[in-house]
Each structure stands twice: as structure tokens, then as C-alpha cells.
Structure to design on (319 residues):
């Protein structure tokens, strides 16, 4: 059962409920980048006393471990187009590509005030014009980049 | 604080498990969506936003105080600023190339996907660069002239975003 893709009309509304729960419990916008920021900021000061945002991010990581435990394997193999395109020693290209993408993701999400969860999910459902603009922008950009990649590779 | 941390982690487990089970952690699923080959991501996001919008509207109307923090429930919204758009373009390039975003990356690492460690390292570096730059820019400079109070309606509507919240 866990190997199959759960129906969108169960998974989507469940995420929506998480956003509402976050508001009721913490009066806060649910966003994973905020969690990363808490972890990176605290660890940078040598502190391990993370607030609930940091624990939210750790919870997402724990969910992966839980899935691995219940399913017996990760959800997927390889890493998308990169592991299909690069083989043998060519796979070394994946290192700068993934680290570089990560830097852009982390810095960009912080600058934009949120990522797919903070702006795309929570911000838009809070009817924030900034989040709506951010979401259209990152979706448009990612669609353009993914299409461009298909043409190149 | 313990109740907050535990609840935060639990919320993360539910959220992340759904991201994994829905396949959003798989870069090829994201690729299929970004190339408009699969409608799943859009139906998934759309139904999530629809549910959350209705839920938040109800909460705003009926729930007076937050459960785990001593605050009345409420929020303000922001007008789009240059940073939202610029940041989202930068984010979108990273997302389009890696076909993974921060939530899925955390769940990938939990599943023991080795490649995800590289994306994770990158995100940590990116967030760190932002935090260091921002801390530097907001350091109180003795010689700097007093910052002007915001006068435009757009500036007044701007929600103050504390460090660590995004």
C-alpha cells in the first residue's frame, strides 16, 4: 500500500489540515524553511535548544525514516534526471549540481520569505498577495528550467 | 516548551509522511509535473490550498486564542516586494534543476537517500549565507543615520518577518 502513490484528494487535504493545525496551535504560518533557518541559526551559535519550528523540520526528516521502516525501502531510487544522465565518474557532476541547487533553494527561499510550503501552501491559503506572487514566480521559473533541461539533455 | 516541541515534531511527521507517500520526494515525480506530463502535483497542491483556505477562514472567525502559545489568532498579509520575486526566481532555479525542495529533501535524507545529503548541505549553506548577511546588514551602526519611518501604505502593511521565520 505504501509503495503506491496515495490519492491526491487524501494527501492534499491532509497537508491543508496541517496548515490549519499550525495556525490553531502556534498562531503561525507552517513553513519548512523556517525550520531549517531555526536549526542552522541555533547550531551556528552552538545551541541545540530548537523551538517547535526546528522540531517540525526534524519531524519531516523523521517521517522519512518512518516510511523507510514501514515500507522497507525508500520511495524512489537514484535522483531523477541526474543519476540517469551521468554515469560512472561522470556522476561527480552531480555533486556541484546538487550542492549548487541547494544553495539557490536555501538562499532564495529565505529571501522570498518562504518555499513551496511557506509561500506556496500556507501563504496562499492565508490570502497573502506576496505569497501568491512568490508562488507564481517560483512555479514559472521551475517550469522554465525543467523544460530547458529537457531540451539540453 | 516541551509540548510545543513535541507537537511541532508530530506535525512534521504527518506532513513529511504525506510528502513521501504522495511521491513528492521523488525528483522524477516533480519533473513530470513541471513538464505538465502529470496533473497530480497540481491537484495535490490545489486541494491542499483549498482545504487550508477554508480552514483558516473558519479559524480566523471562530478560534480566539492559539492553543500552545499565549496569543490571539490573527495574521496580516504582505504586498509583493522585490525580495519575494527575486528570491522566488533564485529558489525556482534550484528547484527546477534538483527537482526537490526543502520539505522533500528533509524526508529524502530520513529515508537514507544518499544523494539528498548533497542537496541538504547546499540548503544549509544557502540559509547560512542569508542569515549571516542579514545579521551583518541589521547590525546597529553608530554612525548610520536613523532609519526613516515607513510612510507609504505598502510599507506600513508589510508584516515584520523575524529571523528564523519563513
Amino acid at each position: 500500500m505504501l509503495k503506491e502513490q496515495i490519492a491526491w484528494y487524501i494527501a492534499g487535504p491532509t497537508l491543508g489540515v496541517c496548515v490549519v493545525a499550525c495556525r490553531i496551535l502556534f498562531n503561525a504560518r507552517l513553513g519548512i524553511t523556517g525550520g531549517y533557518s531555526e536549526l542552522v541559526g541555533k547550531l551556528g551559535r552552538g545551541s541545540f535548544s530548537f523551538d517547535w519550528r526546528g522540531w517540525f523540520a526534524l519531524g519531516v526528516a523523521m517521517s522519512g525514516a518512518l516510511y523507510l521502516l514501514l515500507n522497507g525501502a525508500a520511495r524512489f531510487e537514484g535522483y531523477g534526471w541526474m543519476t540517469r544522465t551521468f554515469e560512472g565518474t561522470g556522476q561527480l557532476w552531480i555533486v556541484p549540481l546538487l550542492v549548487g541547487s541547494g544553495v539557490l533553494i536555501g538562499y532564495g527561499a529565505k529571501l522570498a520569505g518562504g518555499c513551496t510550503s511557506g509561500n506556496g501552501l500556507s501563504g496562499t491559503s492565508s490570502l497573502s498577495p506576496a505569497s501568491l506572487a512568490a508562488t507564481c514566480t517560483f512555479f514559472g521559473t521551475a517550469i522554465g528550467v525543467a523544460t530547458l533541461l529537457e531540451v539540453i539533455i | 516548551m516541551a509540548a510545543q516541541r513535541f507537537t511541532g515534531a508530530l506535525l512534521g511527521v504527518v506532513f513529511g509522511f504525506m510528502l513521501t507517500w504522495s511521491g513528492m520526494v521523488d525528483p522524477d515525480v516533480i519533473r513530470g509535473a513541471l513538464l505538465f506530463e502529470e496533473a497530480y502535483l497540481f491537484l495535490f497542491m490545489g486541494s491542499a490550498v483549498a482545504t487550508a483556505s477554508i480552514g483558516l477562514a473558519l479559524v480566523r472567525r471562530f478560534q480566539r486564542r492559539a492553543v500552545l502559545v499565549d496569543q490571539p489568532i490573527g495574521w496580516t498579509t504582505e504586498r509583493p516586494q522585490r525580495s519575494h520575486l527575486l528570491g522566488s526566481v533564485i529558489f525556482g532555479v534550484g528547484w527546477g534543476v534538483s527537482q526537490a525542495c526543502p520539505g522533500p529533501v528533509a524526508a529524502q535524507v530520513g529515508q537514507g537517500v544518499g544523494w539528498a545529503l548533497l542537496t541538504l548541505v547546499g540548503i544549509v549553506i544557502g540559509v547560512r549565507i542569508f542569515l549571516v548577511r542579514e545579521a551583518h546588514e541589521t547590525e546597529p551602526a553608530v554612525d548610520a543615520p536613523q532609519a526613516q519611518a515607513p510612510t507609504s501604505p505598502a510599507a506600513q502593511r508589510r508584516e515584520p518577518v523575524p529571523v528564523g521565520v519563513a
Observations:
- The mean pLDDT of chain B is 89.
- The longest helix of chain B spans residues 40-62.
